[in-house]
Amino acid sequence: MFIDYARIKVVSGRGGDGCVSFRREKFVAKGGPDGGDGGRGGDVIAVGDENLNTLVAFRYNKLFKAKRGAHGEGSNCTGKTGEDYYLKLPLGTIIYDITDGKHEKIAEITKHGEEIKLAVGGNGGRGNKRFATATNKAPRYAKPGGDAQEFELELELRLMADVGLVGFPNAGKSTLISRISHAHPKIANYEFTTLEPSLGVVQVSEFESFVMADIPGIIEGAHDGKGLGIQFLRHIERTKSLLFLIDINSNDPFEDYQILKKELHMYDPYMDKKKHLIVLSKLDTIPEEEREETIELLKKEFEEKSQENIISISSVSGDNIKKLTRELYEMVKLEESEVE
Predict the structure, then answer these.
(1) Domains of the chain: residue spans and CATH
(2) Residue 195: what pLDDT?
(3) Given phi > 0 = left and psi -120 to 50 = alpha, else beta, which region is 227?
(4) HEC states along the chain?
(5) Residues 31-51: pLDDT tens digits?
(6) How far apart (Å, rounded) are the C-alpha atoms in residues 43 and 119?
(7) Whole-number pLDDT of residue 186
(8) Is the whole model's pTM more than 0.85, yes or no?
C-alpha cells in the first residue's frame, strides 16, 4: 500500500538519575561518596532506507520512543546509556516539526544510510561523588536525569526517480512502465486506473539502468485540485527528467502536451523546465498504411510549434521501445553530468 503522508510523535529517552551512595567496606569506617552518574537517554534518529518507498509503516503506529538511561549505582557505576530508536524512512521524505501548531521544515532524507537526530536524549544526572568538595566531603544529594524531548512531526514523501512519467489518464503510462521495467501497476481501459505512484527500474543494458516513476494521470486544472489534484504532482518535483506520454489517437496531441506543461508550470514554474522527451503512445492502433504519414505530420507540427522532437512507440508491439529506453538513459546521464 502506498502512503505518502503521516503524522507521528517521537520521544527521546530521559536521562537516568545520579546515585547517592557511600563506600561500605570492612575496616573503612567513613567511606566517601561513590554514587555513579545516570546513563544518557537514547535519541530518536531518522535514517534513510533505499529499500522503502512508502510511509505505510506509520499508518497505525504513531508513537516512537527511545529508551531512558539507567540510574547510576554505587561503587562509581555509571548507568547504562538508553538505546537509540532508529526511524527508517524512504528516500525523499521531508520532515516537518508541527509541535504546538507550528509547521517548520527540519530535515529532508535524500541518501541511503543518512542519519538525522529528531529528538535528543536527556543527559544522565551526576552522582553524589561529583559534588564532593574539601568542605563537603559527604554530599547526600545527586542530580536527576535530564528531561526527554518530545515532538510532533509531519512526514511527507516525494518519490525520488530519474524519470517521471507524465500524461493524461489512460495515455498508456502503466502499460509502458510494465513493459520496460519490473513494475506491475494495475492496467485497465478507463481513466485513473493508477491511483498511486509506482517505481520501476528500467534495465537498458547489463550495467546501465535508471528508475522511472509512474505518476497518476494529470488533467487540466490539476494544479487547482481537479481530478486527483496536486496530491501526486509533488512526486514529479523529485524526478531528474520527464517523459511526456501522449495518446497518438488524441484529437490534438500537441495541445495535450501544452496542457501538461502548463499544469506543471502552474504547480511549480521550474517543473516544465526539466529535461524531457515527448512520446506518442499506442502506435499499434494506427493502421499500418497510415502510420508513416501520421507520424510525419505530428513530427512537423511539434518541430514548427515548439522546436521539439517526438518518438512514437507501441508498448504492446514493442515498436521503438529499445530506442526510447536508450534515449531516456542518455538524457538522465546528461542531467547528472550537468549537475556535477
Answers:
(1) 5-157 (2.70.210.12), 163-339 (3.40.50.300)
(2) 46
(3) left
(4) CCCCEEEEEEECCCCCCCCCCECCECCECCCCECCCCCCCCCCEEEEEECCCCCCHHHCCCCEEECCCCCCCECCCECCCCCCCEEEEEECCEEEEECHHHCCEEEEEECCCCCEEEEECCCCCCCCHHHHCCCCCCCCCCCCCCCCCCEEEEEEEECCCCCEEEEECCCCCHHHHHHHHECCCCCCCCCCCCCCCCEEEEEEEECCEEEEEEECCCCCCCHHHCCCCHHHCHHHHHCCCEEEEEEECCCCCHHHHHHHHHHHHHHHCCCHHHCEEEEEEECHHHCCHHHHHHHHHHHHHHHHHHHCCCEEECCCCCCCCHHHHHHHHHHHHHHHHHHHC
(5) 789 999 999 999 999 999 988
(6) 6
(7) 44
(8) no
Average pLDDT, the chain: 86
Contact 301, 280 (CB under 8 A): no
- Give residue 272's pLDDT band: very low, low, confident or very high (50, 70, 90): confident
Q: How many CB atoms lie within 10 A of CB 338?
A: 8
Identity of the residue numbered 272: D
